[in-house]
Structures are given as C-alpha cells and as structure tokens.
Amino acid sequence: MRHTRLARFAQLSAVAATVALASAPAMAEQWRGWNVHPPEYPNSVALDSFAAEVAEKTEGRIEPKVYHNGVLGAQPDAIEQARNGALNFGNFNMGPMGPIVPETNVLSLPFLFNSEQDMYRLMDGEIGDKFEAALAEKGLVALSWFGSGARSLYNTDHPIETPDDVKGLKVRVMNNDLYVDMIDALGGNATPMAYSEVYQSLKTGVIDGAENNFPSYDSSGHFEVAGFYSNTDHLILPECLCVSKASWEELPEEDQQIVREAAENAAQEQRELWAEGSRASRDAVTEAGAQINDVADKAAFLQAMQPVYDDFLAQHPDLEPLVEEIQAAQAN
Ligand code: GTR
What we know:
Blueprint: H1 2-23, E1 29-34, H2 42-57, E2 62-67, H3 75-83, E3 89-93, H4 94-97, H5 116-123, H6 126-137, E4 140-146, E5 151-155, E6 170-173, H7 177-185, E7 189-192, H8 198-203, E8 209-212, H9 214-219, H10 222-225, E9 228-235, E10 239-244, H11 245-249, H12 253-287, E11 291-293, H13 298-304, H14 306-315, H15 320-328
The structure holds beta-D-galactopyranuronic acid (GTR).
C-alpha cells in the first residue's frame, strides 16, 4: 500500500516537473566579454551598449556582461580564450591578433592606411570581408570594426622628431614580432609587454617609451610617466567586436541577426565616441603637462620602416596581393 502511494506520488511529481520545465523560459546564456579599457573609454561604452541591446532584443535569452579593465587577463590570452569558447566575446585589436591570424598582420604594416576614414571605408567593404574570413577560420566571428585612431610614439625625456631620436630607446610594443622589427628599423630596442605592465615599467625605467593613441595614453596614465608624445601616426589599426565561433554557432538564426545588428550599432557609436574622446584626451594630457610634438616629416619614418614591408612580404609572398589591393584602394 505504502509503496503504491509512493509510486503514485513519484509519478505525479514527474508530471509536475515536466510541466514546469515546458513553461519556464529557456535558460539565459550568460556571455562573458573581454575588454582591456576602463568603463568610461569609448570602446567600453559601446560594448556596454552592445550588451544591453542584445539582452533586451533577445528578451534575456542572451545576457552579455562586459568585464572592463582587462580583469579577465592580457589580450593574447583573451584572444585564445575566445577562440576556444572559454570567453564569448571581446573587443580585440588586430595588432596582437597577428601571431594567431597571420593575414591580420597586413594591418600592422606601418603607414598602411592613409587615414582613419580610409581604414573604416576599406574594413567595412570587401577588404574587411577577407579579414573576417581569416578570423573565422581561427574561431572568431568579427561582427563589426571599431577604430583606434593612429598610434604614435611617446617617451620619458625628449621629443621624437626624426627616426634618429629613437636610437637606443627601449620601447614597449604589443605582442607581435612585426612591431619588434618596426622599432628595430628605427634603431630602438623593442620590448613586447602586456598593456597592464607599461605604466610601472615606464615609471621605473625598465622602458623609455611606448606607442599608442591619445585615449589610451590618457586613460592608462602613461602621460604621467612619459610626458613627450610625438605624432608619428605610424599605425592605424582596426579592432573587432568579435564573438567566439563556438558561441555563435549555438545561436538560432534569429539571435545571430540580433547580435550582429547590435555589434554594428556598437561600432557606429564607438566611432562617434572615438572622434570626440580623442580630442578630449589630447586636451586633457596637454592640460596635465604632456608635451605634444607634431612630427614634421612623417615620410622619414615611413622610409626608415620600409624594411618591415620588405621582410614581411619576403616571408609571406601570398599576402602581397592583399597589401597591394589596400594600397591601390587609397591611391588618388
Ligand atoms: C590600445 C588598444 C588595446 C591594446 C592596447 C595596447 O590602444 O585599444 O586593445 O592593444 O592599445 O597597446 O596593448
């Protein structure tokens, strides 16, 4: 008797559980996103908008959260984690992407783009599609392109006016051999190093300088310890809003569409915020006492860096047509 009652109870519970499961909303996907910058940085604001739009439009089926300030680790590791699905998305720079996706090294050739506008135009078109395809082969879905202005050299104790002024300087570069070659070509000593270590290294004299855009020079505080910023503008690097291919492929088409649109809107917002933020950062560091030196002869730097192109193309002849296509698309 007891047994029968228990069995009946178990049967009813199972039915109740099935009904509850069927009527509960599907479990929300918690997406973790990597970002190296502080929350008020243009990219961070745009990433937060992306997260909010995805959560709202998927009605909570995907709940992205952006982890700012690089708390989820250094960029090269974060890229690997996004590739293997341990992270769901991130805002990645094409500089440290080079060692993982060789085609993207083309974007790290100094003075490749004439202007930010040319970079946006080409990355938004068929040329950008080629980089997207290369990234996809390595497990990353590039949904939109962010800007990162132009990178210039800065250092602790003198303005850089000619390539000669770089001789003997220890310069931090992002993790990519191309940048080691670039600084070598100027006669400096390159030190690849994580972004988070640069401030302390400048302060303690482990390095004499680094290179970056105004918003990073400002928000990282590097201007406090390396007060000479010289506008070499040698790299105009795109960044992606990339989703892990593993996470992407789990999504129904409807949600892929929502995520893609949110990423495109975020890029639009980032580009607008970037233009404003760059000017504001330039003003802020000047106000704080940094000396900005407008390099008169940028062609001298391009010429000095020419061996970087020659060596790269000698090693990767297959990428020469892509380099030429990008150059031809900017000829006027
Ligand atoms: C910033 C860029 C970051 C990171 C950093 C660096 O401008 O947005 O993704 O690459 O530079 O120098 O490491």
